[in-house]
């Protein structure tokens, strides 16, 4: 997507120094656009854990690149294979919910098995990391084209601006390009369909207010930031035509883990007959799990993220305490929306019901998995 009119991916190899991976430091947005250089597996792990990068597909892409950085380091290690296996473990422990992390690491471990020498490992892991980035971009583009049909259908029926609600940031900042939930929005906007996006602020880290609002604005998509509690009211008053969110892990039966608060939006959408779609690349599907509420690991993050908020003041970006210092806080990062509340899943292969039968109709090769 574009930053100041320039097509930009969220992660890239340094143009002059391919031993460096560059990522946008998302902790600084929307107030500052800065790139961070990653030069080692530990720096890649830090970037994921501290949420310099975040969003399921980008976590996977960064882990893939982290394995390439590890391969560069492993050239001088005594046992390069062991070094790389430990690197995969380090990266695998950064964040528990997004399954794309393990998908990318497994892909790199398989590639590693074909490498006979450390320098062959460098070449193969770099190529595979770049392939992961390219595949993610293409899958997100395809998600956009499939999801576009939903927006076109609403516009053809109403002839009015299409109002879409989204939660958290499942945009191009969460991926390599396009985004998942936002990709249909960009495709529709680029085709001249009038649309407007309700952007949930997404407490506690405010990925909606900080990131989704910023990237929609960069692309010229009309949007409004709303407090997390507003969605139900808007739906009751006919101001939401469609909800599209992303996901960090979707099970075989179509249960969807996504940013905390997604479940409440799905309940409100169900109660008001508003279609609720989830957009995802196949790297977000966990075919080994069925019951998402019971089986998906939910990340718990620090109390500080709930108790403090940061924002721009005349003195720069400042953090402020918003509750009594002594009050404890709970910070569950994700929740699970049961498949029965999901109208459909938008994947790179098309749209299907949120069910095992629906998913297998698009991914028949997983029937035996
Ligand atoms: O904690 P985050 O910011 O990594 O959570 C991100 C989300 O919940 C996104 O909606 C999800 O990863 C889908 S990204 C296309």
Describe the 3D structure.
Strands 8-7-6-9-12-17-18 form a 7-stranded mixed β-sheet, with helices on both faces. The chain has 369 residues and is an alpha/beta fold. The model has no long low-confidence stretch (mean pLDDT 97). The chain has 2 domains: 134 residues, Four Helix Bundle (Hemerythrin (Met), subunit A) (Up-down Bundle); 222 residues, 3-Layer(aba) Sandwich (Rossmann fold). It contains 12 helices and 18 strands. The longest helix has 41 residues. A hairpin with a 2-residue loop joins β1 and β2. Bound molecules: 5-S-methyl-1-O-phosphono-5-thio-D-ribulose. The site of 5-S-methyl-1-O-phosphono-5-thio-D-ribulose has 17 residues, from α2 and β11.
Write the layout of secondary structure elements.
Elements: E1 2-3, E2 6-7, E3 11-13, E4 21-24, E5 35-38, H1 41-49, H2 56-74, H3 80-92, H4 100-113, H5 118-158, E6 162-166, H6 182-190, E7 195-200, H7 207-218, E8 223-226, H8 231-236, E9 242-245, E10 249-251, E11 256-259, H9 262-272, E12 276-279, E13 285-286, H10 292-295, H11 304-307, E14 308-313, E15 316-321, E16 334-337, E17 344-347, E18 350-352, H12 356-362
Parallel strand pairs: 6-7, 6-9, 7-8, 9-12, 10-13, 12-17
Antiparallel strand pairs: 1-2, 3-4, 4-5, 10-11, 11-16, 14-15, 17-18
Helix pairs in contact: 1-2, 2-3, 2-4, 2-5, 3-4, 4-5, 5-6
Bound molecules: 5-S-methyl-1-O-phosphono-5-thio-D-ribulose (MRU).
5-S-methyl-1-O-phosphono-5-thio-D-ribulose (MRU) binds at residues 54-57, 98, 168, 170, 174-175, 180, 207, 246-248, 258-259, 333.
């Amino acid at each position: 997507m574009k930053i100041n009119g320039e097509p930009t991916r969220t992660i890239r190899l340094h143009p002059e120094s391919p031993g460096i991976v560059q990522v946008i430091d998302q902790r600084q947005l929307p107030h500052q656009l800065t790139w961070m250089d990653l030069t080692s597996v530990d720096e890649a792990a830090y970037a994921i854990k501290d949420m310099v990068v975040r969003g399921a597909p980008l976590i996977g892409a960064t882990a893939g690149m982290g394995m390439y950085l590890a391969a560069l380091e492993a050239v001088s290690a005594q046992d390069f294979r062991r070094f790389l296996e430990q690197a995969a473990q380090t990266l695998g422990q950064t964040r528990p919910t997004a399954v794309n992390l393990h998908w990318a690491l497994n892909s790199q471990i398989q590639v590693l098995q074909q490498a006979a020498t450390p320098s062959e490992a460098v070449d193969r892991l770099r190529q595979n990391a770049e392939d992961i980035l390219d595949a993610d971009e293409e899958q997100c583009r395809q998600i956009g084209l499939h999801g576009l049909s939903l927006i076109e259908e609403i516009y053809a029926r109403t002839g009015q601006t299409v109002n879409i609600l989204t939660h958290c940031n499942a945009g191009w900042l969460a991926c390599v390009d396009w985004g998942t939930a936002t990709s249909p929005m960009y495709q529709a906007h680029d085709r001249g369909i009038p649309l407007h996006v309700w952007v949930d602020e997404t407490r506690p880290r405010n990925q909606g207010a900080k990131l989704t609002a910023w990237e929609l604005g960069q692309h010229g998509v009309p949007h409004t930031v709303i407090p997390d509690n507003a969605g139900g009211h808007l739906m009751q008053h006919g101001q939401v035509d469609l909800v599209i969110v992303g996901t960090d892990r979707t099970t075989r039966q179509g249960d969807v883990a996504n940013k905390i608060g997604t479940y409440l939006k799905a309940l409100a959408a169900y109660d008001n007959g508003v279609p609720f779609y989830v957009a995802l690349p196949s790297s977000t599907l966990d075919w080994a799990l069925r019951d998402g509420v019971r089986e998906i690991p939910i990340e718990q993050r620090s109390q500080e993220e709930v108790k403090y908020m940061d924002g721009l003041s005349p003195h720069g970006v400042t953090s402020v305490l918003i509750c009594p210092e002594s009050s404890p806080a709970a910070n569950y990062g994700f929740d699970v929306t049961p498949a029965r509340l999901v109208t459909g899943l938008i994947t790179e292969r098309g749209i299907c019901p949120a069910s095992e039968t629906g998913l297998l109709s698009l991914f028949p090769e997983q029937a035996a998995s």
